[in-house]
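Annex B. Sample input.
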Amino acid sequence: MLKVLNLEAMSTVTNKTAPSQQPQQSNAKPGLRKPVFTKVELLKPETIGHTLVAKVLTSNPVLQKGRSVSQHLRQTRISECLIGDETGTILFTARNDQVDLLKPGTTVILRNARIDMFKGSMRLAVDKWGRIEVTEPANFVVKEDNNLSLVEYELVNVQEDGGAPPECCSMWQEQLVSFTERWKCKQIDLLVVEKISRLKAGQKI
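Annex B, continued. Sample output.
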């Protein structure tokens, strides 16, 4: 009976001292990364993840449809809004509920915005992964004589002398060769059909 009591006492002491020997795990969560704000003049074609503060200068509707066709369809609204900061301006494509936020005279914060290309010029946009916030009026004066959407870009393939052709060029060449081979095969088939027709008509080939 005495041994049993001693074992129970030892197990009690062991259970009390065990937690102190285990390393303590930290429950602290990593802090959120602060957004890096950029300026309009630094925007480049087909880039993403932009956060900036801009003033809305104008808003012009370019598309509005849906309700007149059916009451069950959601109304689609698209407006081109000219926004800018102290470094320049750019056209922003506002869709649906965004149109109500980007009213002329308001200041907005665009988070996780992206640059789309439309007919060779840049358009700023915010999709479902971004956010638009109306904020306090900014104290800067918009530089309206530097409209980035008026700059036209041309997509070109840069190839150094002696280098391998770009992948798109090789794909285009393969498609061209394939098309030429199909055209030749079709031409041969037509020639065979023409010979057979002449033989049936009793003409010399």
